[in-house]
Specification:
Blueprint: H1 20-31, H2 49-57, H3 65-75, E1 80-83, H4 90-104, E2 115-118, H5 122-135, E3 143-146, H6 152-158, E4 164-167, H7 169-178, E5 189-193, H8 195-198, H9 204-213, E6 219-224, H10 231-236, E7 243-246, E8 259-265, H11 271-281, E9 286-290, H12 294-307, E10 313-316, H13 322-334, E11 338-342, E12 357-360, H14 367-374, E13 384-390, H15 397-403, E14 409-410, H16 422-431, H17 433-452, H18 466-472, H19 482-521, H20 527-536, H21 546-552, H22 565-574, H23 593-602, E15 612-613, E16 619-620, H24 630-637, H25 646-691, H26 706-710, H27 714-722, H28 728-748, H29 752-759, H30 782-794
Parallel strand pairs: 1-6, 1-7, 2-4, 2-5, 3-4, 5-6, 8-13, 8-14, 9-11, 9-12, 10-11, 12-13
Antiparallel strand pairs: 15-16
Helix pairs in contact: 3-4, 4-5, 7-9, 12-17, 16-17, 19-22
Length: 795
């Protein structure tokens, strides 16, 4: 028999899991032992198990230099100013400490907001949110992406459930002002990514309002490739003993080592042909092209799509809808070869994989912007190339790049590979008027962007050949640039004013010199006055020649200098946004809207107020709009800074209620008077209509026939019998007489109401009860009537 071996199970005691409190206490103790030089992997950091697992799953194994140096300080809760090259992993450097901070505090969803991460652009916020989802997948915290262009109602309902909020400044401030569910009183950490951009002039007022609403006791972390060191910015953030970590400060160059940088000097009208030739020669590369304005990006994208260069074209700019912006961003990340036209919204922090070329078609504002633009390639120790296209007038930017330790070399265009597309563009715009309008807007937008730049040594709008630039865009006629025309007129007016002022000063000086010479030659001049004038003009006849006297009398402007032409241009261009004033007035600054408002406040003039005066000259008050009581006027004229006095406001309301009730009663009485007046006028009109009806207007058809009621009139029968027969003309006359009598009889037998109405008429009527027989008028003379009567008797 074959016996089978029996399997025996060995039960070993399982290791008891440590409680979360014990794990957290061990992690906190290890924070103090972190040595950046000894860390080679993320496992060497005292991190929680969910964080380590998320990092491994996404293949984040070896920390970068900025992560190695900064994570230890962040875990201890200290404030950090982190600066590192583009593409050095700054995002993980602040996301890992945020997750660990919430884990160690056992933060739950019901406890609300714990970490606030602010970025300048929506695309960067979306990128940070996606990275957080990857590495924090095993944590139980809730995170929210709060950016413009998304559903505001959806965000409002769920804002109180977010533990980590990634947002842009504008939308965050909107929720702070409008959303009652927003509560940051328990917030632990504030993170500013691209901190120098968040704190600059563009976001200054918004960030000041946000920082005022945040709790002062918090940890603050700032990261950027070009970190701010301004004491004013750091004071705004209430930093306490921050650690400035700049891992590449001592390095030879401030840009990545794998980045090949070059520049090219090109005329403005050759930029379009240069871009077209570059794209045609790099069809199998991934290219990012930076421009200065949204309208330029839109036009270049549309017109090059019409020309079909043979590669995929994309556009990313600020005025696009948010859904489309995110679709373009994701599409460019996925593509292996494409050309993306973008403004500076794509220059900060975005991680586009495998970008081969970054072309800066328009000159950046300063060296920091150049670093951020060029940093979209050669990320994470990869290679890439950058090309800067500048105008001959923009060459001073090279000095700034050199001072920032940026290695850049000049290259020149190969004329054999440069293809002109001006004729093709002109034909394309001639067919499409919408594209032509887009080209005109792009032209004006570029001129305006150059005009508004701060550094006038680099950006000189007077050096631009606008006509040639318009033709290169395909426009036969250059569009009118109104603000540039105003600026040129103001500059010419200032030059003329300066010349006229110099001329008047010289004339006045000559007149004074002539007067003094006359006084010297005259013998009747008093000695005291003569000596005074000599001293006032410093005339000393100590053997000084006339030529030396001429040199002595030249005006030396020690206290004030009249600016020359270049200074005038620079001063005017620095105030380019203030073009509201009268430029023809000399020695006056342009008058801004803020200055006008201050003047109105000083003069105590209330805007949009209409004052009505009566015949005597007193002010007529509109009781519906102004306060009538003396107590209210006294309160309005007083300047109390302490706020609103509730009790006094109640008294004012009671006083104003009395006047309001009286005004309401007057309105009701006036309304009743108006109703009575209208009723009287209607009744009077009815009476006048009834009395003005004449006899013809009275309907007598309802009356019975008087001959049937009373029989025929005997008098009329007698008259007819006694009257001899005559011609037909006379018979007709008798019939008319009978008709008149019938009408009279019918009027006699009318009802009493009709009698009253007819008797009250304005016309003169005969008495109803008197009927007189009038003689028949034959229309013949008296002699003819007698002859007619004799003839009738003879017959």
């Amino acid at each position: 028999m074959v016996y089978k071996k029996r399997k025996i199970k060995v039960f070993r005691p399982r290791k008891k899991k440590e409680s979360i409190d014990v794990v957290i206490s061990k992690l906190k103790q290890d924070y103090e032992k972190i040595d950046p030089s000894s860390i080679e992997k993320f496992d060497d950091f005292p991190l929680s198990a969910p964080t380590i697992k998320g990092l491994k799953e996404n293949k984040y194994l070896i920390p970068t230099e900025i992560q190695r140096e900064s994570i230890g300080y962040s875990l201890r809760g200290e404030d950090i100013l982190g600066a590192a090259k583009t593409g050095s992993g700054k995002t993980l450097a602040f996301l890992i400490p945020v997750l660990e901070l919430l884990y160690c505090n056992k933060w739950t969803r019901s406890e609300g907001l714990a970490a606030l991460i602010i970025t300048p652009t929506r695309e960067l916020a979306y990128q940070i949110f996606e990275t957080l989802r990857k590495i924090g997948i095993h944590h139980e915290f809730s995170a929210g992406l709060i950016i413009g262009g998304k559903d505001l109602k959806f965000e409002r309902k769920r804002l109180d459930q977010c533990n980590i909020m990634i947002c842009t400044p504008g939308r965050l401030l909107q929720h702070m002002d409008e959303n009652p569910l927003f509560d940051c009183s328990n917030m632990l950490v504030l993170v500013l990514d691209e901190a120098d951009r968040c704190l600059d002039m563009g976001f200054e007022s918004t960030m000041n309002s946000i920082i005022e609403n945040l709790p002062p006791e918090r940890q603050t972390i700032l990261f950027s490739a070009t970190q701010t060191k301004s004491v004013r910015d750091l004071a705004r953030l209430s930093l306490s003993n921050p650690h400035f970590i700049s891992v590449h400060e001592t390095s030879e160059y401030s840009t990545p080592a794998g980045l090949v940088q070059s520049y090219m000097v090109c005329e403005l009208h050759d930029k379009m042909s240069l871009l077209w030739s570059f794209i045609k020669n790099h069809l199998h590369h991934k290219v990012l092209v930076f421009m200065s304005s949204c309208k330029q990006v839109k036009y270049f994208y549309e017109v090059l799509c019409k020309l079909r260069p043979g590669t995929s074209l994309l556009a990313l700019y600020g005025t696009m809808h948010q859904t489309k912006r995110m679709a373009v961003y994701e599409s460019f990340c996925r593509k292996q070869r494409a050309v993306l036209f973008a403004t500076d919204i794509a220059a900060r922090g975005l991680d586009f994989p495998a970008v081969n070329w970054v072309v800066q078609l328009d000159c950046p504002e300063n060296a920091n912007e150049y670093i951020h633009r060029a940093g979209r390639t050669a990320r994470f120790q990869k290679s890439g190339e950058s090309l800067l296209v500048i105008l001959p007038s923009e060459t001073p930017i090279l000095e700034q790049l050199e001072s920032k330790k940026i290695p850049i070399q000049e290259i020149k265009v190969n004329p054999s590979k440069l293809t002109s597309v001006q004729r093709t563009l002109e034909a394309t715009l001639a067919k499409d008027h919408i594209l032509k309008e887009s080209a005109q807007r792009a032209f004006v937008a570029y001129i305006k962007s150059v005009f508004l730049m701060k550094d006038k040594k680099v950006f000189n709008v007077s050096a631009l050949d606008t006509d040639a630039f318009a033709r290169s865009l395909g426009l036969a006629v250059p569009p009118r640039v109104r603000f540039l025309q105003k600026w040129k007129k103001s500059k010419e007016a200032k030059i003329i004013a300066k010349e006229s002022e110099d001329l008047t000063l010289n004339n006045d000086l000559r007149n004074k010199l002539n007067k003094t010479s006359d006084y010297e030659n005259s013998e009747d001049e008093p000695e005291s006055d003569h000596s005074y004038r000599k001293d006032s003009y410093k005339f000393h006849d100590d053997g000084i020649s006339d030529e030396e006297n001429d040199d002595l009398l030249t005006i030396k402007r020690k206290d004030h200098n009249i600016p020359d032409n270049n200074d005038d241009i620079q001063e005017n261009s620095n105030n380019e946004e203030q073009i509201y004033g009268d430029f023809n007035k000399k020695n006056k600054k342009p008058l801004t809207k803020a200055a006008l408002a201050k003047k109105m406040i000083k003069k105590k003039i209330k805007p949009n107020q209409k004052t009505v005066f009566d015949e005597i000259g007193e002010v007529v008050l509109d009781k519906t709009k102004t306060k009538v009581s003396d107590l209210a006027r006294e309160y309005e004229n007083s300047y109390d800074i302490g706020g609103i006095d509730i009790e006094k406001a109640k008294q004012i309301l009671r006083e104003e209620d009395k006047f309001d009730k009286q005004l309401f009663r007057e309105k009701v009485k006036a309304k009743h008077r108006e109703q009575k007046r209208k009723a009287k006028e209607a009744k009077r009109a009815e009476m006048e209509d009834a009395s003005s009806d004449d006899d013809v207007s009275v309907d007598l058809s309802w009356l019975p026939d008087p001959d049937k009621v009373y029989g025929k009139n005997n008098n009329s029968e007698l008259d007819n019998d006694s009257q001899p027969e005559s011609n037909s003309n006379y018979e007709d006359e008798d019939d008319d007489d009978e008709d008149e009598k019938d009408e009279e009889l019918s009027q006699i037998h009318k009802p009493t109401k009709r009698k009253l109405l007819i008797s009250n008429s304005n016309k003169k009527r005969k008495k109803l009860n008197e009927i007189e027989d009038e003689p028949v008028d034959t229309g013949l003379s008296l002699v003819e009537d007698e002859e007619l009567a004799l003839q009738m008797l003879d017959t």
